Amino acid sequence: MTQTRTFLILAWLMVATLLWMEWGKERDAAAAPAPAIPTATQAPGAGTPGIPVASVPGAPAATPMVAATLPVVRLRNDVLALELNGRDLTRAELLDYPQTRAAGSPPVVLFDADPARYFAAHSVWRGNDGRELVLQPDGTARDIVLADGAQAVEARFVATTPAGVQLRRTFTLPRGGYALRVRDELVNTGAAAWTGDIERKLERVPPVVKSGMTNPEAFSLNGAAWWSPEEKYEKRKYPDYVDDGPLDRQVTGGWIGLSQHYFLGAWVPQKDQGAIYSLGTRGNLYSITARGPQVTLAPGQRIASDATLWVGPKLADQLKTVAPGLDLAMDYGIFTVLSKPIHWLLTQLHKLTHNWGWAIVLLVVVIKLLLYPLSAAQYKSMAKMRKFQPRIEQLKERYGDDKQKFQMAMLELYKKEKINPAGGCLPILIQMPVFLALYYVLLEGVELRQAPWIMGWVNDLTARDPFFILPIVNGAVMWLTQKMTPMVGMDPMQKKMMQMMPLVMAVMFAFFPAGLVLYWVTNGALGMAQQWWNTKRYAEDPAKA
């Protein structure tokens, strides 16, 4: 029997199944063969063209002893406080994002030199002989802060080899921005040609994430992500680093990143300079690297290589301006096509309400208005089913325990009276993917992190309701809606299942983020009001048995 409420049960089973699949999903990646590595030599007298990709076989890994002896420069704008030594960025404090809602809470530390939470970005030039160009601060300043009225703040470093190769590196941090621009200028003032390449790497100890279907952090990508013009967005969780095989892909115009809940570190190399992307593990450290370009500088030649290092929250409007596909680091999974417009719409509604909770309420109102024609069809269908309920009860008595004959007779009645018992299910089924898409918006939308709705009650929309008021209200709304809904043709077992649904949903929602429950409570309350109004509007006298 395809009744509306039976469809609701199936829809919720679909929700549970999809959530479970997303929690346990493992993306299989085929092992890619190592690319052929071209070597390019810059012609004498050339300017600064795009540089082809190459790698230097056998070059040593970064030497921790070198980094440990380098002077640290602190660079700060109005939203970021960084510590760097020219080759490594080992600390990044996100000044606008406190760790907790408690007064005086320290800011989130994204990059951290603490061995237990290690996360750093490296950028190193080496010659073919394996020797690193060791950078030193250019000047005596060690604390560089954005000046009042200035649009950016800079830190400069310089390295010079005994053979006369000079590297000048400039870090530029704009006001209000998380995109750190890194410009390298190489010049050969020596008497012999120099060949080398650059390695840009992100490396970290993976954060410990508590698993669980109702824990939002467990669903967010915790691992590496990268983008190329050919393959677009790809990702790999830390547990899959080895099992899914090597990456070793030559890419021009892409980016690499290490992602966690709400925050991202990502290297974006110069779009016309190629690099080989690779994944690596070293003990409990996991890394993703973009190596290249390789350059050969004749005496007197110079070249430049630019890159951007994103250090901060996943802000879609800013990420998409830094590099193509970087906004996909807000990983909505299979619900991207719905989650992106929902996130955009929520952002616009927040501009009106200045409160993310009320923005969610308005989102429900907008969706209800868009779906009203379908809802009207649903209530018309319910009204017809209510009208013919006495006839259906008569058929049930006539055929007794012969369910097959009862079903056939009921379908014949539906056909004769032009009743579509599934006609009202479409709005319910449409709500399921919207519900899941919003769940992923709450997962990835850092704007909603620690965002309150009503202070003293729901202080964080991404955490569960501390007093369980919303889940209880949701159960009450479901129970009242159930009382208004005809359960035509249901057997006693089906009715008992339906009567248990409000309690089951109240318990399940007790562990979900408050913002998600707020969405569903508002949706249910408006749906109940619609149903009451349309029941009166389309009410008909019961058909005679």
What's the topology here?
Blueprint: H1 4-24, H2 64-68, E1 73-76, E2 80-84, E3 88-98, E4 107-111, E5 119-127, E6 136-137, E7 143-145, E8 152-160, E9 165-174, E10 179-188, E11 194-204, H3 216-219, E12 223-228, E13 232-237, E14 249-251, E15 255-259, E16 263-269, E17 275-282, E18 285-297, E19 302-313, H4 316-322, H5 336-353, H6 356-370, H7 372-387, H8 389-399, H9 403-417, H10 425-444, H11 469-484, H12 492-509, H13 514-538
Parallel strand pairs: 1-7
Antiparallel strand pairs: 1-2, 2-3, 3-4, 3-5, 5-11, 6-8, 8-9, 9-10, 10-19, 11-18, 12-13, 12-15, 14-17, 15-16, 16-19, 17-18
What do these coordinates show?
This protein is of the alpha+beta class and 545 residues long. 35% of the residues lie in helices and 26% in strands. It is built from 13 helices and 19 strands. Strands 1, 2, 3, 4, 5, 7, 11, 14, 17 and 18 form a ten-stranded mixed beta sheet that branches. A hairpin with a 4-residue loop joins strand 9 and strand 10 (179-188). Helix 7 packs across helix 13 (514-538) and helix 11 (469-484) runs parallel beside helix 13 (514-538). The longest helix is centred in the C-terminal third of the chain and has 25 residues, at 514-538.
Radius of gyration: 30 Å
**Overall pLDDT, averaged?**
82
Number of strands: 19
Low-confidence runs of at least 5 consecutive residues: 1-11, 17-65
Number of alpha- plus pi-helical segments: 13
Q: What portion of residues is helical?
A: 25-40%
Broad structural category: alpha+beta
β content, as a range?
25-35%
- What's the multimeric state? single chain
General shape:
elongated
User: Main beta sheet: strand number and arrangement?
Assistant: 10 strands, mixed
How far apart the termini lie comes to: 21 Å
